[in-house]
């Protein structure tokens, strides 16, 4: 395992966060983001700054997110009950601040954060289950006991 600097980790986290917003299946990217932020907070390398109103509302209700500072970057995560009790509310998002731009490939960012957190990406092809065609029987007939076979044209 390599020791990556806080700068490299925060840049990789920014890249992951940017790609997760437009990814067709962002589950792993958001999990990697959450695991990285949790580890950074435990090690004292990131700091919770306060609560802010979320840019998008859910079910017409105002929601709050936690603002986290890591290096030169700011990130948002979902707020927990303990966050509401311990953190100050900062109000609405500041549109004038933007994270510094970085050009890092998604693969390099995933590699850095996977090494840092120990998470491993599960291959989607391994995760897929095989599809078996349903077996239909006429009303009154018994269900066949043989396993479903895959159909193919010959």
Write structural notes for this entry.
The protein is of the alpha+beta class and 154 residues long. Helices cover 35% and strands 13% of the residues. It contains five helices and three strands; from the N terminus they run H-H-E-E-E-H-H-H. The protein has helices at residues 6-20, 27-43, 81-86, 106-117, 124-127; strands at 47-53, 64-70, 73-78. Strands 1-2-3 form a three-stranded antiparallel β-sheet. Helix 2 packs across helix 4. The radius of gyration is 23 Å and the shape is extended. It starts with 5 loop residues before the first helix and ends in a 27-residue tail after the last helix.
Give a brief outline of the structure:
This protein is an alpha+beta fold and 154 residues long. The protein is built from five helices and three strands, in the order ααβββααα.
**Total strand count, please?**
3
The percentage of residues in β strands lies in: 5-15%
Helix tally? 5
Strand ordering within the main sheet: 1-2-3
Average of pLDDT: 78
C-alpha end-to-end distance: 52 Å
Series of H and E elements = HHEEEHHH
Characterize the main sheet: 3 strands, antiparallel
Shape: extended
Radius of gyration, in angstroms, nearest whole number: 23 Å
**Unreliable residue runs:** none
What percentage of residues falls in helices of 4 or more residues?
A: 25-40%
Q: Helices, strands, pairings?
A:
Elements: H1 6-20, H2 27-43, E1 47-53, E2 64-70, E3 73-78, H3 81-86, H4 106-117, H5 124-127
Antiparallel strand pairs: 1-2, 2-3
